[in-house]
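Incident log, structure service

09:12 report received: a user says their structure output differs between two submissions of the same chain.
09:20 pulled the input from the user's history:
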Amino acid sequence: MKRGKTENSQRFDATAVSDEVLEAASSKGLLRRARRDVEAGLVRLSGWDGGTALAEADGESVRLIAGPLASAHCSCPATGLCRHILAGIIFIREAEEVRPADEPGAAETRTPIRAEAIPDPHAEVLSLKEDVIIRAFGRAAFIQAQTLLAALEPGGIKIESSPNAVRIVLGAHPPVLYPAGGGPAGMLSKAAASQRAALHAAALLAVRGPGETAAGAEQAPQEPGRATSGTLEDAAALLRDAARQALSKAPAGLEERIGDLVLSSRTEAMPRLAAELRTIAAMIRRRRERLDAADPAELLVMLARAYALTEALRASPDEPLLTGAAAEAPQPLPAIDLVGCGLRLWQADSGARGVTGYYLSMDGRSFSATLARGAGSDPGFVPRHAATAEPVFGRSLAALAGSAFRLEGASATGDGRLQTGSGRAEPLKAGWSAAVQGIEGAVIDDWKQCAIRLSTAFRPKLATPPRRALPLILRPAAFGSPRFDGVAQVGRWPVRDREGAWLELEIEGDERLEAHFGLLGSIGDRQPPLLTVLAEARGADIVLSPLAFGTDSLTLLDLPPAPPAPTEQKPSLLSRLTKSLTLPGVPERKPMRFEALARPQAASQRLIATAFDEILALAELGGRMEDPERIQRMQRLGRTLDEAGLAFPGNLVGQLAAASGQTRADRLLRVAYALNLLARIDPTLPFVRLLP
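09:34 re-ran on a clean worker, output below:
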């Protein structure tokens, strides 16, 4: 009797997997490395286990199963599709086809067979029922997909069918591939993770054609991009529990509850809240593991901000700035002239690593482009190599970081993140220096004006996510000597403006510190170059870190030029005399010493800081947060705030002190948000003064 085929009983067919599919599932660079492994003879087919192909690639064991590429498995530590899996697919596809063994686990056979017919991918999509698509991506993504299709311009849908895959392009969104035999789970695109489900569902609906989703539209329980009250109530309750537990115990169960809510389809319409919750879960894990980065004050601020966001969403569930739909969804970007401001190589505490380039437009807006990999994925990805070798917009990030160029055909999110999957950059003839001078107000030579600009840019607003970073171009008049701060374990570098004020820049204290010191120490005061820096908010302070320097072109600190080859040359008589003689009356140059310039703190700011410390200590008690002595102090502090003209925070502190055990978490999060907002209204810059 002829058995019906299932996904597990089918034979893996590499001929159905084209290079286009492999590239969409990984990257060009990873695909090139896999092909080099095949060409170097590092890959072989070791046999078949039923319909599963068994291969060895560069010492690793690979299992290739029929169905979505994500079902492939490799013995290496990488997650997702690694170069070994890609190499195994390429080898089997290009080699002579062999028949799988009749008995499970039998050794390989060399008997050629006729390949089974590759499923028609276009017919597969047409056969998918509406309930199948909803089960694959979720009801919320299905509704968002309908909205996405409705917003497209006429002619904005392009569908290309081939024997191996269907390629769907929806307007300016990244192309979507439906590989033959992969099903909805095997669809591929370079879309952001938060947008992928809706885009893939929209691609399937586009292939099925109009009139196929009317029933689904009528049954839709919520509007796309609208926050549901049930989800917000669950999120608020979860945050109140976190206020009682996260700062005292940081239990794993709390982290799992947050993860479950984030992964549910209910938060798909609120990508901003989902991102806040993911950050909180990561901070809880770091706190449980006793990591240095788990600052309790920062965790309390995160909880308070997310709680305030849930309250705002209850009042305005359709507001795109609150849901995050406006910021997350990439939008087509008109042709734009950009100036590179350097780049940064980075590695997160989670193990993710990458490289990010920073740019300014002619109207002063900031943009960024990133190449990155998650923790454990693609071990061959090296940020330094990716910065110089992997093309972005037709050029490397290193080339773009120090040049002026016109970018066409690209897309960007609302907060300026460029999508690296589309667009092309062409250098401007004017060059970097001329382009910088063409941006009004781009070059800053007065640190007080710099402080005003950054204070405005980083002022907290609930209607927008916290600003991550902002590139700036400074024109220092003089430089101090770089020094190492043994307490903070970072480098410090003072720079002076034309008015004589000094700012101290921060240099990350990792293995690159010595090279950075060498480059920065070579800069002279006779003709000071322009300096590009990255401004980042850290609590109520703003930290400035150097990225690059130059006059006509930029020298990148993280990618310094190769040192010139040393040449053996005997020292001249003059140089020997200079080293051996000390002229009378000429004192030796003493190193410059600086100290932090303490900004006079207003009495109101001191009261706000004291109140925040009190509620932080209360939160760290956990549970019902009962401490009669501290509650009495908070009652007195509330009255003091009121008398000092801070009636609103004083009233909130008083309500917290009078709250019952059941409502205390709610009152604590409200007052924490208000106090943090007041503390960050006027962020400080690292001004220093020169000691005599």
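09:41 both user submissions now match this output. Likely a transient worker issue. Closing.
09:42 reviewer note: Residues 17 and 164 are 6 Å apart (CA to CA). The mean pLDDT is 81.
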